[in-house]
Amino acid sequence: MPKDEYQEMSFLRVTSYYFNMLPVLKPGVRSFFVFPLIIFALLTPLVCHAAPSGVLILSSGKSPVYEKIAEALKARLKSPERRVHLLTYSNKHETSLVIPSNTQLVITLGLKAGEVIQTMNSGLPVLHALIPKSSSSRLLKNTENRTAIYLDQPPNRQLLLAQLINKDPHIGILLGNSTMGSKQEFISLANKLGMEISYRAVTSEEMVGPQLKELLVESNILLALPDPSVFNRRTVFNILLSSYHNKTPVIGFSSAYVKAGALISIFSTPDDIARHIAETTSEYLEKNEKKLPKPEYPKYFSVEINSSVARSLGITLPSESEIIKFITNRTSQ
């Protein structure tokens, strides 16, 4: 039985007992009990019915990634003072989604969940997670009580990783519809770090092959970005194979890319993301902050190396833990 229901039942039993006793007491004694009992009856419900704060986690679907992050968040956030509600979006929720009472913060996982919450105009603070930076602007504009933890890795991490692969890196990037907006950020950071960078715009899937061929002539590292118009199940095999034949190492953005043939990937695992969201949520709620923090890239990240590809390309790398430590130290300076 929930603690607040148990307290309520205990109060009712005590109150009932004393009211039942009043008729058998003498008038003077009866009046002695009545006034304190009234005060007790007025104050006790205020304590017993003080509802815990609530956090709603809305997932965009039943993807294993969403489910793993949602469950990890619930485990990290749940406490006697806080209730955590898990909901998974489906088409039937278009008009029937109800936000539980006492919700103080909404956490959305994925783009669809973010769009659904936006259309509800609840006025509640919202933390959007697992969304690309390129898609965040329409969810965050014209409001001060919304923030995001992006799906993307920050460009400085990716460029620092390139420096570990090649002391004189010339990075090639294929930019599609979702990543074209990051072009200037990459160019500026590369200039600061003394790196060369080349890019090609991909406006259709048919352009991936020809643009990649040109890019591999100019660059000695290929940086893959999470853009489905460029990197998808129809194109990724040929991209990785062409890069390997050209002896150009590929930096991927997920563990799957390492398994498919990329030299190395830098990414945030579900545990990394859940940890970051939980820390942001706890700090906001426990400190009674008036505003959510500014949107940011994932705080925690992981690295995975394909040792077979490294040997074939004659590349020697530090251990995964050493790479994480190096990048963390450099980006915190």
Automatic annotation (TrEMBL):
<protein>
    <recommendedName>
        <fullName>ABC transporter substrate-binding protein</fullName>
    </recommendedName>
</protein>
<dbReference type="InterPro" id="IPR007487">
    <property type="entry name" value="ABC_transpt-TYRBP-like"/>
</dbReference>
